[in-house]
Amino acid sequence: MVQVRPFPGIRPATELAAQVACLPYDVVNSTEAQALAADNPYSFFYIDKAEIDLPHDLSPYDPQVYQKAAENFQDFLAKGWLIKEQQPLLYLYELTMNGRSQTGLVATTSIDDYTSGKIKKHEFTRPEKEVDRIKHIQACDANTSPIFLSYRDEEHIQCLISQWQTQQTPVYDFTSYHEVQHRVWVIDDSAIIADLTAAFDEVPALYIADGHHRTESAVKVGLEKRANSEQSSESDYFLSIIFPESQLAIWEYNRVLNVDLPQDFFSQLEQAFDVAVSGVKKSVAQGQIQLYLDSKWYTLTIKEAVIPTDAVGRLDVSILQKQVFEKIFGIMDIRTDKRIDFIGGIRGPEELERLVDSGQWRLAFSMYPTQMEDLLAVADAGEIMPPKSTWFEPKLLSGLFLHDLETR
């Protein structure tokens, strides 16, 4: 019931894959990207964050940045660092971190499946972030970053994927950021491609795991091209990497606050939580949140009486937001309030300690990760999670796959 189709991918020359591939544009800032790309002219950061190739005082949203991205993209193609396939293909992308592997099917998915609700979301997007990626896609006339999608496990699909991995040799095999191994296979057998695309006809829905802004941007570009009669057979689809939900791991997405504490702070906390000094830095069960304050770790155990029954309200992140951020500190919009920031779980609780001990932030909350079944339940209910509810690891690298919209 969802459309999954092959496409003539653009990907790195085999010997350059490890040097081209980089972290997603939205998990590093411009300074970090520039440092990571230093002494590496092949880095995809020169396309995905092209401001690093321009004067430092230029805004990353200046029109020159998008123009430079398009120029660098064409330069990579001209030099053979990126190569476009001659026919539509599918790919497999396996990531292995700490002994756990996940394998996604690299394909294109339909903008119509998104607008009709067959590709489901669980987060709101911010217009200014959409505009950035819209301009980037328009300038390059390509989807330069994949959407991270998931689906409920289908045995037949997994069997087809596993057989191909076992019987074929990967075209890329390298280890990169955080010691993650990345392997890629090209599926060039027309019969297997037909079997896989047909198998997804039986999948009722796909779910956005990560990349809501990229999805909205890709869909809006495709719809605009359709409305202006500029569409191609490719622009009705966007680049996606699709993983079975059982293989995915969500990490905690932690919070730090820079606020003044009321004198009765702990008394207010105890209205919704059982509070105990514990020394525990990472929660091991849903319903427990760790608080770091004044060099001490406290465990906050959510009281049963304050746990709602709906898919969104019962999440730990929702309860913390309502019972602490809103009730105690008056933080009503955590997307825009400057008193709060979010720290991905990959940085560990030590980063929370560092930020609070430095005096930059007053207190920190270490969360238990939202679970995949929670994400699917929220999306199926047509509801929206609080911002920054999920942090997926390992990160899909950018630069390994691009999708030409072919409208120029």
Automatic annotation (TrEMBL):
It comes from the Bacteria. InterPro entries: UCP033563 (IPR008323). It holds the Pfam family DUF1015. This is DUF1015 domain-containing protein. It comes from Enterococcus asini ATCC 700915.
